[in-house]
Amino acid sequence: MSSLALATEFVTDNGTRVEWVSESQDLRPGQTHWLGLSITPAEGWHTYWRNAGAAGAPASLDVAPNPAVVIGGLRWPAPQRKVFEGLNVYGYESSVLLAMPAVLTQAQSVELTGQASWLVCKELCIPESAQLTIRLQPGEGLPSDQARRFAQTRARWPASDPLEGLWDAATGRASVALPAGATQGQWAFFPYQNDIWPAEQYQEVQAFDGRVVFDVKPSQTWPKGELVHVSSGQSWRVNFQPGSVARSMALGWMALGAFMGGLILNLMPCVFPVLSIKAMGLAGLSGMQRTQRRLKGHAFLAGVLTSFAVLGAVLLVLKQAGAAIGWGFQLQSVWFVGAMALLMAALAASMLGFFKLGGAFMGIGQSLTQKPGYQSEFYTGVLAVLVASPCTAPFMGPALGFALASEAWVLMTILLSLGLGFAAPMWLIHQFEGPAHWLPRPGAWMETLQHVLAFPMLATAAWLTWVAARQLGVTVQMGWFLAPVLLAFLWYAFHRFSRSIAGVLAGVLLAVSAWAYWPAQARGVQWQPFSDEALLQAQDMDQAVLVNVTADWCISCLSNERLVFADPEVGGVPGVVWLKADWTDYDPSITAYLDEFGRAGVPLYVVYRGGQSRVLPQLLTVNEVITAVTAP
Description:
Blueprint: E1 5-6, E2 9-11, E3 17-22, E4 32-40, E5 47-53, E6 60-63, E7 69-71, E8 80-84, E9 87-92, E10 96-104, E11 110-121, E12 125-136, H1 147-154, E13 163-168, E14 173-177, E15 186-191, E16 204-206, E17 211-215, E18 225-229, E19 235-242, H2 250-265, H3 272-283, H4 290-320, H5 334-351, H6 360-363, H7 375-388, H8 396-404, H9 408-431, H10 433-438, H11 444-471, H12 479-496, H13 499-516, E20 528-529, H14 532-540, E21 544-550, H15 555-565, H16 568-571, E22 576-582, H17 588-596, E23 604-609, E24 612-615, H18 622-630
Parallel strand pairs: 13-19, 20-22, 21-22
Antiparallel strand pairs: 1-12, 2-3, 3-4, 4-10, 5-9, 6-11, 7-10, 8-9, 11-12, 13-14, 14-17, 15-16, 15-18, 18-19, 21-23, 23-24
Helix pairs in contact: 2-8, 2-9, 3-7, 3-11, 4-7, 4-9, 5-11, 8-9, 11-12, 12-13
C-alpha cells in the first residue's frame, strides 16, 4: 500500500473530477517535490488558464498554512485558445494538472487542507469549489502512480530559458526570435494580462526568417506572457525589450510563393478533371474577335478570383468559430463530394448531347460556333477552382500554412495571389493573337473534340463517387467505378473512328489500366496506419520513417502512390517504417501534424532519420524516396 494517502476526490454534479495528487509516494525532507491540483472536466466542458482571456476565471488552491511544509504557487501548462460565445478564451478542454512545489521541513507526517475553486463552462458557466486534503509522509521520495502525468505536464511548462523579443511602442508590433530548430508551424502569444494585449487581438502566426511578428496596439509598456507552439504545446516566456520592429517581409514572399504555386498547379495531376473544360474554352478561340477574346479571358480571371475570395471568406468564418481546418476541407464532406460527382456527370452528359445546359459552364451542349456570353467563362473559372483547389503544388504549402495562421486581410491576399497564378496561363492565352491562330478554324472537329473530352469528365465523376463511397465506409477498388467509363469510351471510339485508330486506343487504355490497377500492395510499400504513438515507437527503435499524409480526393497523392510507392524498388528498401495518415475525412490529429510543418493541405511527405526530419517535394520520384530513407 502506498504510504501517501489521498483523503479526498471531489466529483461535481456536472461530472468534473477534482483531486489533490502528488508526484511522489513519500517526500524526502528538505528536498523539493511536486503536488498538483488535478481538474478533469466532463466531455464538452472547459476550464481556464491563469489569464482566462475575454471571459472566465482561473482555478485556485488556497492551502492552510502548516509549519512542517512549504508550498509554492501553481505552475500552469500552456493553454489553448477556444472561441466561447464569440469570445477568445484561454484554457483547457481536457484534464489539466496545476502543479505546485512542496518542501517537507520536518520528518513527520503532515495533513494539508486546501480550498480549491474553479470555473467550468459549456453552454453556461458554473463556479465550483471544494475542500481537499492530502497526507504527506516522510520517506525516500519514490514515484507515485501519478509520476508519468507530472512528466507529461512538465513538457507543457515554459522552457527554462526565455526567448528575447522586441516591442515597438509606436506601432504595437512585437517580434520574438525563435529557438533554433523550432520554426515550423503556428505560434501564438498568451499574455498574463489583457490590458496591453487584449484577447480579441489573439493571433496565430507563422515564423519567417527565424522569428514571429505580431501586430497588436501601440503601448509604452510591453506585455508579459508566453509564446506557445500551437500544435505541440511547447511554450517559452518572452523577455521583451523596447526596439523598432519592421513589418515582416513574410507576406511579400508568401504572396509570391502563392502566385508561383498557382502557376504550377496548372501542371499538377489534380487539374486533370478540369482539362476538358479548359480545352473546350481554347477550342472556341479560333476566329474570335480580339475584344471578345480578351473579355472572355477577363471573365475567366474574375471567376477564379471570386471563387478564391469566397473560399477565403468561408475559411475565415470557420476559423472565427474555432475550427481547426486545412486546405481542401470542403472535400472532407461527403455531401460536397457527392454534389461534385453529380455536377461532373451532368456536364459530361451535356457534352455528349443527351441534354443542354444553359449559358453557364461554357455553354456546353450549345453550338460551339456560336458566340456564348461571358457568364460561361466566369463559371468555368469557378468550376476549375472547385475541382483543382484541394490539391497543393510546390510553393503552395508554406504559403497556405502562413495564410491560415494569419489575420483576415493576409489570408485573402495569399488566396488572391494563388488565384492570379492559377488563372494567369488561360488569361494570357486570351490576351494575345498567337494562340488563337494556332488553332484550326471551327468545324465538325469541334463536335468530336467535345464528345471525347466528355469522357475525362465522366472519369472524374466516377472518381468522386469512389471517394464518397470510401467516406461512407464502403471499401472498393476505384477500378470498378472507372471500368464503365472505359468501356463506354471504347464503344464510342469503335463507332466514331476507324477500326485501326480505335484498336490502338483500346490497346493503350487497356495496358495502362492493367498496370494502374495491378494490386499495388503486392509490389510496393506496405503501409501502416499513422498515429503519434506509432511514429514515436519507430523513432525510439532508431528506424527510418516515412510519413505519407494523403487523401482519396487528392489526385497528386494518388499519382505518387501509383508511380512511386507502388514501385518494387521502394517497397523493397529494408528497415523503413511506412506510415500513412489518411486525411480523406477530417482528423484533428492529422490536422495538427500538418500544422507542425506549416502545411495546410496534402500531400505531405516527411522522412525521419537519425533524429532529424526532412520534408520531401510534393511530386516524388523513386530515386528521391529511396535516397531520403537510406542516406546517412
